[in-house]
Amino acid sequence: MVVIGSGHNGLVAACYLARAGLSVEVVESDDVLGGAVSTVERWPGVLVDRGSSAHVIIRQSGIVEELDLAAHGLRYVDCDPWAFAPAPSPGDPGPAGRPLVFSVDLDATCASIAAACGPADAAAYRRFVEVWGPRSRAVAASFGRRPSPAGLIRSFWPLGAPSGGRPRTPGGELAVDFLGSGDALLDRWFTSERLKAALAWFGAQSGPPMSEPGTAAMVAWIALLHDVPPGHPVGGSGGLTAALRRRLESDGGRVVLGDGAARLLTGDDGAGGRRVTGVQTVSGRRISADAVVAACHVNVTRDLAGEAAPPALADADPPLGNGFGLVVRALTDAPPAYPGVSPEDALAGLQLLCTDRAELASAHGDWSAGRLPRVPVPLAMCFSASDDTLAPPGRHVVTIWGQWYPYELADGGDWDALAESEAERLVEAVDRYAPGFAASVQRLHIQTPLALERELSLLRGNVMHVEMGLASMFAFRPTPALSGYTVPGLPGLYLAGASTHPGGGVSGNSGRTSARLLLSDRRGLPRARATAGRALRRAAARLRRTPA
């Protein structure tokens, strides 16, 4: 088997295939393992993530446990508290208040909400977690299966199954909640704009603004974080993909860096059509394989197939959007210090630096018009505060994420010329809540939407590969014809990666589902090999017993 791409989904697929006894090789064009789940020494002695930093979905998937990645060196630092939202800064309109701290401990979280927003919202939050916990677990279960009607029913049926003669959750209520917007959901449950802004900013990390239909489940994922919080691998995000590689190699698989796929090899399928027979790499090496898992962008897969691409792949044109965000990696001599909250509470997880959803709406509106945000909205992370392997003593790595930055600017602006000034504006946006932060910055590494495309092959700077709106999810992702992880008309080719269900983020689900499908399609082969092996061993034993 050949897997194209060493991103975490490709490595997850490779691990499941190798564990099943198949011969697996992963080919990667980059010299760095892991794609967008990787860590490099950006400055001497300083480890910096190239893409993701906080891992959320994979910690709910069971993949880490199924592959026993802890035995292969993966160790997570729990982000607990998993999020912090500041009080409005003194210059903001509206009353000042206490910071919000979201912990795994639901009681502690509700106490923080009560102090900052009032007891009514604290009680509403507790009930929200009770109601949306089972619903979000159903979403998590659906992420681990092919997006077929049967799979969705299997995931969501318990929510509406009869209980004491009555449905647990009326179907109409479920439909309204799941198909509705995150903003509408928040408005139904809470009164405090500060609380709604923090939860909306968390939900918006999936991509769409919380004003769009179908985004309710994105914000409601917070219910699961009171069971298992986000985590950051010791040594950086690349700790996950390094452990996956070690797991793969322990089962006989291999990874080749710096020599990625140049084209898919195809041959006659015996019925007048074509099937995939392997991969040719950039160096010209030809690798024969019964099947290929393309864990790269679906558009890259289309290009690799070339003239052999059947209509379902050749005509694929999923929405890529116009960029996603701007990332600033800052080397500092101190972590951000937020008034009124301890470093232990503020720095363990996501720093949701937004106190009014109007800021999010404004930034998204500017993005829609192809403009830079007039008021940048930052999300900050400083995992060097809890992981001393990332930077030398007295130094810290702060990641600042600004969402909804256009890849293509309406005024024709040049990202290479704009990078430094926009990075400075994001740094200043953090300094607004953590006075003195800007003065602590010593070095910057800036990842504009264009730079993300160049470094990580994220087309148009979209870290999710394909837009994450309702029209591009589940059985519509990346297109209806390709939503089953296979390519109709080109057997032997399987799809994985963020282009497929359930989408972007550190999930691993698409890699596992693609591998499971491949193994299901071949389920007679391992048994046949085992039977043949037993027959050979019996024959050899008979020969040893036969006199010469």
From TrEMBL:
InterPro entries: Amino_oxidase, FAD/NAD-bd_sf. Coiled coil: none annotated. GO terms for cellular component: cytosol. SUPFAM superfamilies: FAD/NAD(P)-binding domain. Interacts with COX5B; this interaction may contribute to localize PYROXD2 to the inner face of the inner mitochondrial membrane. This is Pyridine nucleotide-disulfide oxidoreductase domain-containing protein 2. Probable oxidoreductase that may play a role as regulator of mitochondrial function. One of its GO terms (molecular function) is oxidoreductase activity. Residues 181-518 form the Amine oxidase domain. Pfam families: Amino_oxidase, NAD_binding_8.
